[in-house]
From TrEMBL, chains A, B:
Pfam families: FTCD_C
Statement: the UniProt record of this protein carries the keyword Nucleotide-binding: no
Coiled coil is among the record's keywords: no
Organism superkingdom: Bacteria
Protein name (record): Cyclodeaminase/cyclohydrolase family protein
InterPro entries hit by this protein: Cyclodeamin/CycHdrlase, Formintransfe-cycloase-like_sf
Domain called Cyclodeaminase/cyclohydrolase: residue spans: 9-185
Keywords per UniProt: Membrane, Transmembrane, Transmembrane helix
Membrane-spanning ranges: 29-49
Length: 210, 210
C-alpha cells in the first residue's frame, strides 16, 4: 500500500502542495487545516482534565476528547480520499469533447470529486460544534487555542466548499448539483457564524474587546 | 540537533498539537497553516508557467514563485522558533510570585514569546500580497486554490495575533505592548480585508456570486 499523505512530513506535504502536481491541492489542504483546528480543541481538553476548577466538566471533556480524536482521524484520512477522486476527474477532462462517452464519465468523476470535500465540510462543522463546547468547558488558560481552532476549522470549511462548487457547477444533473449546493450553503451559513462567535468571544476575553 | 517540527509527519504534528504538551500550540499551528496557504499560491504559479495564454506574465510568475518559496521556508522555520520561546515563558510562570527577579524574567519571556507570532503575521501578509497578484496573473483553472490560499493565510494571520495579544496584555512595559499591538491591529485591518476581497473574487468567478 502506498504511503498515506498524512504520513509525509509537514515540510514534504507543503512542498508537494506547492509543486506542479494536482494532488494534494486545495481539498487535501483543507482537510489538514481542519485536522489542525480540531487537534487544538483536543489540546485544550487535555490540559483541562485533572484540574480541580474544571472537575465538574470532566465527563464532558472526556467525551469531547473521544469525539475530537475521531474527527481528527477522519480529516487526516480525507486528505487521501480527496486525492483518490482527482485522478479519474483529470482523466475525464482528457477525453475528447466529441467522445459520446465523455458526459457520463465526466458526470460521475465530478460527483465523486465532490464527495471528499463535502465530507471535509461535515467534519469541520462537527469540529466547530466541539470548539463551541470547549469554549465553555475548557481551561481559560488555553483560550487562544480555542480561538485558533475555530479560525482554522472555519477556513477549512470554506476552502473545502470552493472545491465543491468548482465541480457542481459543471454537473449536467442540475437537480443533484442544487441538492449538494444547498447543503454546502446551509453549512456555511450556520457554521461560519458559529466560528465567528467563538473567535469573537476569545478576542473579547483576551483583549477586552470583540 | 533535534529534529525540526516541520520534519515530523503531518499525522504526528497533529497528534502532538492535540496532546498535553505546550508546543506545538496555536502559534506553531498558525505558522503551518500560513505555509499551506502560500504553498497553494506557488502551486497555481507552477501550473501557470509555460501556458501560452499566460506567457506575458511568465517573468512575474517566476518572481512570485521565488518569493513564495522563501515565505514558505520562513513559515516552516517559525514553527520551531515559536516553540523555542515557549519554554522560557513557562519557566517564568513557575517562578514564585514574590520572587523579586520574577518581573524582569517574565517581561523578557513574554516579549520573546511575542516575536515568533509577530513574524508569522508579517509573513502571512506577504503571502496575501502574493495571492492577490496570483489572482490576477495565475491560471484561472486553479482559481479555487488561490481562494483556499487566501482563506488559510487569513486564518493563520488571525491565529498568530491571538498568540501575541495573550502575551502583550501581561507586559509591564505598556508603551512596548502598545507599539506591538498597533502593528498587529494595522496588519489585521489591511490584510483580512485584502484576503476577504481575494476570496470574494474567487467565489464570484466560481459561483457567479460573491
Amino acid at each position: 500500500m502506498a504511503k498515506k499523505m498524512s504520513e509525509t512530513t509537514c515540510e514534504d506535504f507543503v512542498g508537494a502542495l506547492a509543486a506542479k502536481t494536482s494532488v494534494p491541492g486545495g481539498g487535501g489542504a483543507s482537510a489538514l487545516v481542519g485536522a489542525i483546528g480540531v487537534a487544538l480543541c483536543s489540546m485544550v481538553g487535555n490540559f483541562t482534565l485533572g484540574r480541580k476548577k474544571y472537575a465538574h466538566f470532566e465527563a464532558d471533556v472526556n467525551r469531547m476528547l473521544g469525539e475530537g480524536e475521531s474527527i481528527q482521524k477522519d480529516l487526516l484520512a480525507l486528505i487521501d480520499e480527496d486525492a483518490k477522486a482527482f485522478e479519474p476527474l483529470s482523466k475525464a477532462y482528457a477525453i475528447p469533447k466529441d467522445d459520446p462517452k465523455r458526459e457520463v464519465i465526466m458526470e460521475k468523476a465530478l460527483m465523486d470529486a465532490s464527495m471528499a470535500p463535502l465530507n471535509i465540510m461535515r467534519k469541520c462543522c462537527e469540529a466547530i460544534d466541539l470548539l463551541e463546547e470547549m469554549l465553555e468547558k475548557g481551561s481559560v488558560m488555553l483560550i487562544s487555542d480555542v480561538g485558533c481552532g475555530a479560525l482554522f476549522a472555519k477556513a477549512a470549511l470554506l476552502g473545502a466548499s470552493l472545491n465543491i462548487y468548482i465541480n457542481t457547477k459543471s454537473f449536467s444533473n442540475r437537480a443533484e448539483a442544487e441538492k449538494i449546493e444547498a447543503e454546502v450553503t446551509a453549512m456555511i451559513e450556520s457554521y461560519t457564524k458559529k466560528a465567528d462567535q467563538i473567535a469573537a468571544a476569545v478576542s473579547l476575553k483576551i483583549r477586552g474587546e470583540a
